[in-house]
Amino acid sequence: MEKIKSEWFDWVKALLIAFGLFFIIRTFLFAPIVVDGPSMMPTLHNGDQMIVNKFIYRMQEPDRFDIVVFHASDRKDFIKRVVGLPGEHVAVEDDVLYIDGEKVEEPFLQERKEKKPSYQPLTGDFQLEHLPGGYETIPDNHVLVLGDNRINSTDSRILGLVSMDQIVGKTSLIYWPLDRIQTIHD
């Protein structure tokens, strides 16, 4: 009888440790997210399931073109691409991205630019100071984010800049559906 109690105790202990590890990993390290909508097409598709690295920005700052998950509201997380970093001025004119007045290539948009009609803008012209907040440069601890599907994306052009406190983490690994398994590179 004592052996059965000991075995049960060992099983319960193992399960508690497993649930504890799962909770720690899910809360502080990695979490799954599902892409909802077309705003990151063609890079990400509606329904793509991805892993969010929640701890990377505790060790480093975001890089330009990182794909991040952030809290857009209390109930909704968005997935967008970091385009502008602290201290920078961002503008788009004739579908060309300018950072501090210098042209910056966006290779992930090339396919979309080639397929769009010549009369239809991909992004639409804007300057940082005309976005919500009216900043001349991006303040510390903030980034400017845009969706890859610029004509169908709720991003910094509407929401304003995203604070680092809102960012959940970086995502670059699609694990589902099976035919879309890949790591996204800038």
UniProtKB/TrEMBL annotation:
Keywords: Hydrolase, Membrane, Protease, Transmembrane, Transmembrane helix. It is found in: Cell membrane; Membrane. The chain crosses the membrane at residues 12-35. It comes from the Bacteria. The keyword Hydrolase applies. PROSITE patterns: SPASE_I_2, SPASE_I_3. The keyword Transmembrane applies. Its main location: membrane. It is an enzyme of class 3 (hydrolase). This is Signal peptidase I. It comes from Lentibacillus salinarum. The lineage of its organism: Bacteria, Bacillati, Bacillota, Bacilli, Bacillales.
